[in-house]
Amino acid sequence: MTQSTTTTSNVTNATSASVGRAITKSVRGMATSDGAGVKLTRLIGTPLLRRVDPFLMLDEFRSDEPQDYLAGFPDHPHRGFETFTYMLAGKFRHRDNKGHEGLLGAGGGQWMTAGRGIVHSEMPEQEEGLVWGFQLWINLPAAEKMTAAGYRDLQPEDIPIAELPGGATARVVAGRVANVVGPIEGKTTAPIFVEVGVPAGGEATIPVPRGHEGFVYAFEGNVRLGDIGKERVLTRGELAVLGDGEHVRLSSAGDAARALVIAGKPLNEPIAQHGPFVMNTTEQIQQAIRDFQNGEF
Ligand code: FE
Q1: What is the 30 CA–ligand 1 centroid distance (Å)?
Q2: N or C, which end of the chain has less CB nearby within 10 Å?
Q3: Which CATH code, of 2.60.120.10, 3.30.1300.10, 3.40.50.880, 2.40.30.110, is assigned to 23-293?
């Protein structure tokens, strides 16, 4: 049975009715390595951009040189936050001590809630070719840091695509764009994670509720950001932190481009971080280290 209703009355013209977000700061990432020696670019979690609350870290890994990625991320612990890994090219296998296992491929992702503790490995499942993807760390509120660990595998077909007026497309992992709702729902930080493809000459307006903190990362090609008359070009590899408003507008800077639009409700809570443990106090960090050493993850 089909339920077909007219949605005209629900359609709002975001660009005319709502306030567009502007860029408050833009940064490029810093080259670093992590795991057993995987080369990557850290975009959030550096002296240039410590955090965008509730986001603690964003890494981009992109290489077709096997020595940059073969070592992978062998067994390591996490506590107190969530991670989302999103793949554009290549394959990684996830295994954890809760019995989850998953193969991440191009266009897929994995949302992991470390909660009170998890030990996992993230290893490349290829010996040559391009590996390209992202890992985002999303903080958990104090009340949920010791929640049970969880894991959700997203295959490419699990991520719905919104076709937008203006010719752009949005792959919606989390949040809502043009009545398309992403599969990651029910989080206290109400995260938005959308991959936007802007064709040459096209544009896209992505709703980002007022009060969310957010950013845009141009990962392929250059894109214009901002409402009509207020645009600024983001070049490939540039991350723009957004000011407040109700949407972000992306438009073509010439050729086709792709960008991530990521936002969430800030937690405004104290952060105590020691590597892969992110808590609120030093005592909780010391407890995390003891619990991990005692095999309680
Ligand atoms: Fe990890």
Answers
A1: 19
A2: N
A3: 2.60.120.10
